[in-house]
Design goal:
With 109 residues, the protein is mostly helical. The protein contains five helices and two strands, in the order αααββαα. It has one domain: Winged helix-like DNA-binding domain superfamily/Winged helix DNA-binding domain (Arc Repressor Mutant, subunit A, Orthogonal Bundle), CATH 1.10.10.10. The protein is 62% helix and 6% strand. A two-stranded antiparallel sheet has the order 1-2. β1 and β2 form a beta hairpin. The N and C termini lie far apart (48 Å). The mean pLDDT is 88.
């Protein structure tokens, strides 16, 4: 559900960016994601267009985060860490095998 005024970028592109930022290389990111380097590049370009700024300095065989990319990468790290924790919490809640039922003394006897 999208809130009014929210400008959340496509989360798939954010994930691709985060992985590419970790590796500093679109080809290695593509290998981890099981897609082509062209697909990674396309997702990054889409995200940069959404944000209105470049996130990487592109070199012949690698990429490096620029200042905006570094800030966005740090924010993504925090978001994905929080999301990972939320997933773990949800799984723990779902895997509880016992429940507690309270009954009054009259019904319990």
């Amino acid at each position: 559900m999208r809130q009014s005024g929210s400008d959340v970028p496509p989360l798939g592109a954010v994930r691709v960016f985060w992985i590419a930022a970790r590796y500093g290389n679109f080809k290695r990111a593509a290998t981890e994601l099981g897609v082509t380097p062209t697909a990674v590049s396309s997702q990054i370009k889409s995200l940069e267009a959404h944000l209105g700024c470049p996130l990487f300095e592109r070199h012949a065989q690698s990429v490096a985060l620029n200042e905006a990319g570094q800030q966005f990468s740090e924010a993504c790290e925090a978001v994905f860490a929080r999301l990972d924790r939320a997933v773990q919490d949800a799984r723990q809640t779902a895997n509880r095998s016992s429940i507690t039922v309270g009954v009054g003394a009259l019904i319990g006897s």
